[in-house]
Amino acid sequence: MEGCEELESSLLTQPWASVCFGESPFLAKACFGDTGYILLISDLSSVWYESADVQVVEQRSKELNKRLTVHVSSFLHRLRNLMSPLLEGQPGTATSFSCHHVAGGLSLHVKSELSGLPFYWDFHCCPAPMQMVSRHLVRPLIRMSLALQYQVQELTSLLLQKDAEIEDYRESEAALSRGRLRTEPFQEKMFQQNFMAENLPRICGAGEGQAFTSALQQLYTAVTQQEAKQARKRQHSEDTEDPAPAAEPAGHPHPPPPSQEDETVSSSENTTPASSPTQKLRLPVAKAKPKKAKGLFS
Question: I want to staple 33 with a disulfide (CB 3.0 to 4.6 A). Which of 2, 192, 231, 237 is the partner?
Fold first, then answer.
């Protein structure tokens, strides 16, 4: 049986998807198991969630679907099949989703069919705790930003190396066979200025529903998988660093009291401050190295 912690760990590596309920854009992610589910929804102003176990699913299914008598796992399987196409950007035409704000939360209503009978479900979402918001949204976005910054620096370094190689060819009196392929040397500062002035306004005006494209979903999954892997390593390290206390040697149940000299030495050792170096993240930037020309353009 999946526990709540296992479901949330699986939810962590699920990417956020851009969805629409009516006229309102949202971000959502969900994880369904055989004994429960966890759903996260955000409008980029608030974040709501619901974590439901077997008892909650069974009780709510009886209230909403009195004519249906199926096992709880079948309900969860049906909910997974209804939500998955929505999160993949391909909602089924036979299923409708609607949401409305309630006191202190958000309610998501699902209407579909199961075995030829109407099927209804309500997700009763409450505000997500700050720790969950940080784990599923804030920290991954920060790591994604660092990864994209490193990627830009690598690409910039590669462009500068290519420009140096092309310049070396030109100095060797090589000529392009097709003039349309000629490019100007890459200027990083000018590129950044043009990007801020021309592309950034267009990107920011794309709307909140375009927050996670397919490429960003893949990057989010990769980042959260690394975080989950590191968390497992930390847990394993903590488990192995907690050995059982050593047994007292036979014949000496109580060690002799320390002498005055021992107390003085121990006191001086305890008062010595311990220093720990602070590590800073440094993103390496490769320097451009011109290469010698080995031939002419063809």
Answer: 2
